[in-house]
Design brief:
Radius of gyration: 18 Å
Number of domains: 1
Number of helices: 11
Distance between the termini: 31 Å
Strand content: under 5%
Structural class: mainly alpha
Shape: globular
Length: about 260
């Protein structure tokens, strides 16, 4: 991969992975997935590690509260931090297993028509859920079943264009969660899932070739960290007073545009 390819992948991953846009779908449409598979996988892993670090930094208060709750949970005491930690884990483990199983079955691949269709359809789902969903619940009201359901839906993001953040926010909005809390729980779920997937990716890459911390990987990690942090901060500030409509409309416009180009003889 050229340096331009690395920068492009890092930017798309850092922005579209944390916003409800669909990073893999955008990369398919841009043609960046046509590069050497091993090099592409290494850059995406590096970019995802940068994203995880950005999420840990932005949500450090939640991370601190959940970490402090571990001691209380060990003593058999449950507090809001412990409940949130268990809900995040409850949503992560099934999604990780399903994502792994889907990949083993040959899923997670698709051409431009698949990516464009998923961007469009799930963009419309997000728009409808955001408009129809009431805004009465916060994370404190999240039940165990709801946490598991939202988490399991992350596995659908193995299809390019679905968007892990997009589908979990869509589900949370349909359940009546406030926009800020829907985005917050979605991104908290992303931390252990993306970290685990990155670790699995590193193990797989190590079996294929000797891992070397190259300048390209450092660029990918650093750039994705910066744009991911800025994207999260911007989205969280935006949804405090506004809707997810701009993100949904972007998906629909890009998806329909790509479908039109693909279907034109």
């Amino acid at each position: 991969m050229t340096l331009l390819d690395v920068v492009l992948v890092a930017l798309v991953q850092g922005i579209a992975e944390v916003l409800p846009l669909g990073a893999s779908g955008h990369l398919v449409l841009l043609g960046s997935l046509a590069a050497d598979p091993q090099a592409r996988a290494a850059v995406i892993v590096a970019a995802n590690l940068g994203i995880v670090l950005a999420l840990l930094l932005y949500f450090w208060r939640d991370i601190f509260v959940m970490g402090r709750a571990v001691v209380k949970l060990a003593k058999g005491r449950m507090d809001p931090g412990g409940r949130l930690l268990l809900q995040v884990l409850l949503g992560t483990v099934p999604a990780l297993v399903l994502s792994w199983g889907f990949a083993e079955l040959g899923g997670g691949t698709g051409g431009r028509i698949v990516a464009a269709s998923a961007l469009t359809v799930f963009g419309l789902f997000l728009l409808a859920a955001d408009r129809l969903g009431v805004t009465v619940r916060r994370i404190e009201h999240l039940g165990w079943l709801g946490a598991a359901l939202i988490g399991i839906l992350q596995a659908a993001a193995a299809i390019p264009g679905v968007s892990r953040t997009g589908i979990t926010i869509t589900a949370a909005r349909l359940m009546g969660f406030e926009r800020h809390d829907a985005a917050r729980f979605s991104l908290l779920l992303a931390i252990p899932l993306m970290a685990s997937q990155a670790a699995i990716g590193l193990i797989q890459l190590s079996h294929q070739a000797r891992l070397i911390l190259s300048g390209d990987l450092l660029v990918a990690a650093g750039l994705s960290f910066g744009v991911a942090w800025l994207s999260v901060a911007a989205m969280m500030a935006w949804v405090d007073r506004n809707t997810f409509a701009p993100f949904a409309l972007w998906r629909v416009v890009v998806g329909l545009g790509a479908l039109g180009l693909a279907l034109i003889p």
